[in-house]
Amino acid sequence: MADTTQEYQTDTSKWAIAVHRVTSTSVEIWVGSLYTTLIKPKMARVCLLVNGEVIQTKDITTSDWKRPFRNTTQRFVSLQTFDDIQPNTAYTVRFERYISPEEETLPVGWVHLRNAYFNTLPESISSESSFTIGLASCFYPHRDGGRAAEAYQALYERGDDEVKPDITFLTGDQVYLDIGFDSLSRDPDEIRQRIGDDYATNWQLLGGILNRGATWMLPDDHEFWNDYPFHDSLIPQLLALKLKGVRETWTKAAKDAVKNIQRSPRVETFTIGNDLSFCLADLRSYRSKNTFLPHATFKQLTNWAESLTSPGVLVIPQPLIVNINKTERNLLSYKAQYKRLLEALGSSGQNIVVLSGDVHFGRIASCPIGEKGATLTEIISSPMSNLTYLNGIATTGPEFSPEQFPAVDFLPTGWQQQAVTYDKNFAISTKKGFLFSAYPKERTREHFMTIGFKKVDQKLQMTVNAWRIRERDPASYLPLSDFEQAYQVLLTK
């Protein structure tokens, strides 16, 4: 087998690569294609490089490709895990396929398809450099034109080290499976193919994010349908969900995508040394009438909160500091678990940061939590790309309520209501709409945020910046900052 790599000036954009879970010594690389027009290579490989030198290679044969959706014969993906790598180190990944002699299409050899780039996690938070998280949610492909990925890529490749994302959290609505009247189809194969096509389009547009730094993803309702799992909406595009067969096929295909493409955890935790603890919780996929997580999984979440010995970062698809929503369910719709979660978050006395999305506005809010002097800081980043035309009415500016937290009916025993602090300097700006345009209503500017953690005088400092996706600094051509200055707070006392 020839080991030469052929470089062809061909379109490889229908091939996909994403960096998933990274630790200080391992990484997961997801490759394949979500397009129906490509066929599984008989032989492919994923190469891991440091400073241009290949240090590990994972071969992929025909049997290693998996279908991301059940009951389909198209689209294929493979997950490769690399172990025994070094902490806090920059790596490059190459995804290649082999052209064999019998294919008679191109010269024999390896063809380069896609690259990816990532850093392994550090063993501790440093005083020399920031450990930075990219945060974003809500991506509608129409009118994006690749600008979200372009802005992220620019910051990743040319931004200051203090704001370059090391990892990324996408906190929901990475796809909108319920937009458009094709949602009314009752044919099972059409339902599956529509969902697959939506993912193919969005993963191509988001490729510049997914292949730069490890990405964790959580689903929200539009990974399924509006207000999932409930189907009591009268939205015309969703009327087919009244039919059990449609609902079951749609649910299975949507769950396949969350599992096999987004690779979302139920509850997952990791730490950066003894300095910072993370927990990601899917509070959407497993909802019932009375709970947002099954009992055993919810126990994992509360155990994490109660055992914190350092500041904790909770990543969830919907915010905690909200008002009751009378038209769609939010976390306040689950009184018992919401109240118990607050109790757990306030029990350790450690400061808590909540990272979320969903609501089509961006803001930072904070308030005391619990009885041990801790503070809850909630950071919302939404959207990356706004809905358009008729659907473009689903947007809003920042909300500065509730004024008190928690609501009286949700107070854990012994707690008092606390005033919520909203600094309007750290709310994402809006842009005027025009009635007969693609954006008929005033909307929050498309953006993502970066949240950096660094030791300052032996204390953990958090720095938050917001970046406009569709506006550039004329001098650097980096995304324009939406905040006049960064938001900063100490997380350790």
UniProtKB/TrEMBL annotation:
It comes from the Bacteria. SUPFAM superfamilies: Metallo-dependent phosphatases. This is PhoD-like phosphatase metallophosphatase domain-containing protein.
